[in-house]
Amino acid sequence: MVGILAPTGTPVDKTVHVSLEAIEAIHVGWESGANLGHQPSAEQLAQRDFTPKQITAMLVGLKSKIQTFALQRQINDYPQEPLSAIMPGVALHELWGMMSVAEQALMAVSVFVVVAGLLGMLSSLLTSLQERRREMSILRAMGARPQHVFALLVSEASVLTLVGILLGVSVLYLLLALAAPLIASQYGIQIALAGLTAYEWQLLGCVQLAGIVIGFIPALRAYRQSLSDGMTIRL
């Protein structure tokens, strides 16, 4: 063990970096695929030359990004050895493309969760509306117009949706803040608490708009109720 590198917040923090000579020394006695029981001593290993004659892979960094494709083509067309140059960024992009199906499935699950929450809110508003008939009639008797009652119920649905969004985002950031140190120590992945993206703001706006639209249903029912509906005692 020579030293410990400074943490980078990437999976590199979980790796062990050794020299090519050390890799060659590790395989001494395992050339046939199994340990034959003959383990050379440290003095014998120190006298041997473990400089590798060939390597199977290497990571190349370029100072000029413009030459990336030219170097890739030159390596792939190398006549003396069958070589293959792969750009990690392109390979990762293809990998994420393969995982897009799972991402779409999670998005569909999220949509169903939002729909279930909105339907639950609608059910609560309709149930409370039946219990608040007298309250609505009192408001009407005090001079409130039907459109005022309509706006009141739509505002209630809008506020409930907004409170749900704020609570959801707050809990998300709280869980990320609590889990970030654990994930960094266990997996070497640093989670940055960044702000919401424009796409995420659009999704939250759609949820808020859907909550307002859901509020139209109980609001229309209250709008159509007459003044005497809430004053009449139903048995």
Automatic annotation (TrEMBL):
Zinc recorded as keyword: no
Domain (ABC3 transporter permease C-terminal) ranges: 108-226
Keywords, alphabetical: Cell membrane, Hydrolase, Membrane, Transmembrane, Transmembrane helix
Highest taxon of the lineage: Bacteria
GO cellular component: plasma membrane
Subcellular compartments: Cell membrane
One GO MF term: hydrolase activity
Top-rank EC class of the record's enzyme: hydrolase
Coiled-coil annotated residue ranges, if any: none
Protein name, entry field: Antimicrobial peptide ABC transporter permease
Organism: Vibrio cholerae
Gene name tied to this protein: macB_3
